[in-house]
Every structure is written in structure tokens, then in C-alpha cells.
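Async update (no meeting this week)

Hi team, since we skipped the sync, here's where things stand on the single-chain job. The sequence we agreed to prioritize is pasted below, unchanged from the tracker. I ran it this morning and attached the output directly underneath so nobody has to dig for it. Comments welcome in thread, and please keep replies under the output.
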Amino acid sequence: MAALVSDSLAKENNDTASENSTAQVIGGHGTNSYSNNSSYQRLSANVVTKKIEDAIMKNLDVETLSSTSNIFRVADFGCGVGSNTINSMQDLLLIVEKKYISQCPTSSQMPEFQVIFNDQFTNDFNTLFTYLPQDKQYLVASVPGSFHNQVLPKSSLHLAHCSYSLHWLSRLPKELRDERSPAWNKGKIHYTSAPPEVLMAYATQFAEDLDDFLSARGREMVSGGMIVIVGSSIPDGMPYSQVVNGIMYDCMGSILMDMVKTGSISEADVDAFNLPIYACPPGEFIEGVERNGLFSIEVIELMNPAPWLKGPIDIPVFVKHVRAAMEGMFSNHFPSKAIDELFDHLVLKLSDISQQLESCYRDGLQLFAILKRK
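Output:
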């Protein structure tokens, strides 16, 4: 369930609205802001903390990585906004420090740590930095830009972190809006319950994005450096309509079509809108990493992103988290007055099927992977 409310992408306006995406959660500290509605995300992050520690203690050679420089550089790609990002980076640094003490017990000097926060130019870095502790023991920098491109100097990065960011596509496949294409996604906003050609268009775009991401990190990262990846996934061969995410996206599409009937929005607007979200199965992820060839896979597994979720789902609170992460992409496409209507109806619609949501499969919906630069 928490996989739904990760950092968001919003589509650019004007002629590129159907093709490109930029990160845009609700910034600031307001009632609907991502900063105040991201507790589910933090709980999901806590699920993998011990696994990240185990992987770093086993696979990261900090002595070799810090031998040529006394600087150890960590970057968070797709950092988003809020305290979750800061807490995750501090947890990561504590683990690296623990590994350094374990591997280099006779060393009298700990490396100097630098943390780099990367996200799109539209990200609210000002709000992000208000969460930095006054007594932080590391240097900080922000580097705006798409992580599908190189954003750091060559061979300058030792450890990368990317949590719930890779599943956002860099652009939407053009064929989704082409009436002549088998992948024309008329009346739907996602590949959930759509024809197989739509799913293939999404999968093809994700494969291209993953290769771009890995190639960019390959240029930035030193040999032996590591990438920690946590993100939305699904078991190989499972239809997306069987999981909570897919059910919710279908509900959103249904609500938008109802709004067409009442005149709130046009049918053409719905046909032109598609969520730029792809939950990559592990088999496709492994194929993409192996095809790229720059990294070895040290760890890969599917997990339950919300083992802490017990009992009935608080639908209004859940939708508030969803809205904080996803409103940007809707508001950049539909009239502002339609946004409240969409999310108000989403609360009602999900409340009607709350038992179905609670019973949905979720054990293998979070991908955890550790990659090592060859």
C-alpha cells in the first residue's frame, strides 16, 4: 500500500505534456503537502534499513573506496521533499561509518562525508533543507536535473540511493495518444486492465529509462561503488489489476470518465492523460541490468512494502497521502477545480471497496536491489 504514495512526477505543460515528466510533489509545509503526508513512505523505508545495512557490511569495500581521497560521497537520486529523505541519508551514513570502523579499526580518521540530493528542477529543495539537523556531521549539496542523465562528475560517487523514483517514466510513449496505434489508451489512464500493447509500450519505455539511469550512474561512480534501489514492483507474470495500485488507478480512470459525463472535463483530456508509472517485475529488472553491463547484482528480492499495515485501511488518510504525491501531474493536465472533485470521489470509491483493498496481494510489491559498479 505504501508503494502508492511515493515521490511523484508531474507532466510538463504545452506541447510536451503527453511525452515528458518532471518531479513535482506538493511542496512547502501546508495541509496537503508531501512533507506532512508521507508517514507511510517512512514506514516503507524502515522495512529495508536492516537489509541495506547487511548489504553494505558485506559488499562495500570502504577502505579501497576512500584510499585515493578522504571524501566519501553519497547521493540520493529522486530525493523528493521532507524529513524522510534526510532521515534515510543519515541512516545510510551511520551504516557506512559502522562499516568503516569495522573494516579499518586502526585508522584514526574517518572520511569526510558529502551528501548530494538530486531531483528535478521543480523539486522544492528549500523545504527539503529545512529538515537538515543543525548538528549534521556531513557536507550537503543539491544537484537538480533528471537522473536519467549524468548530473555528477565522472568517477566521483561512492554510494547511491534511489527509493521509489525509478518507477516514474522519463516520458510517456507517444503511441498511447496515437489513435492509429494498437497502444492507443482511450478512456484509460494507465496500463492496468488495458490491452497488452499498452503494457508493452510502458515496459519498453521503462527499459530505456533504466538503461539511461544505469549508464549515467556508471559514469559517475567509482569502481566498486554501490547503488541501493528500492521501488515499486510486482511478481513476474502477475496482472497489475490484482494489486492495490492497479485497482486505485482503475478507480481514478473511472472517476475521470464520470466527470466527462457531468461536463467537468472533456473526454479528449482523459484520452490524452496517462500516468507515467511502471512497476517493473524483477525478471525485467535483471534483464535490464545485465543488458547494460556496467553493474553486477549483489542482492535482489521482492518484499512486502507495508508489513506494519494491520486491520482496516483509513481511506481518507490514505488518499491524502496519495494526493500529496500525485496531485501535481493531475493539476498540470486538468482544470484546478476538477482536482478536488477527483480526490473527493476517490475517497468514496475506495471506501466502497475497502475490504477488497485490504485483501489484495502485497507480499512482493517492493523491489529491493543492491548493484555494484564493475
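Quick observations from my side:
Residues 1-23 have pLDDT under 50 and may be disordered.
The two ends are 35 Å apart (CA to CA).
Reply here if anything looks off.
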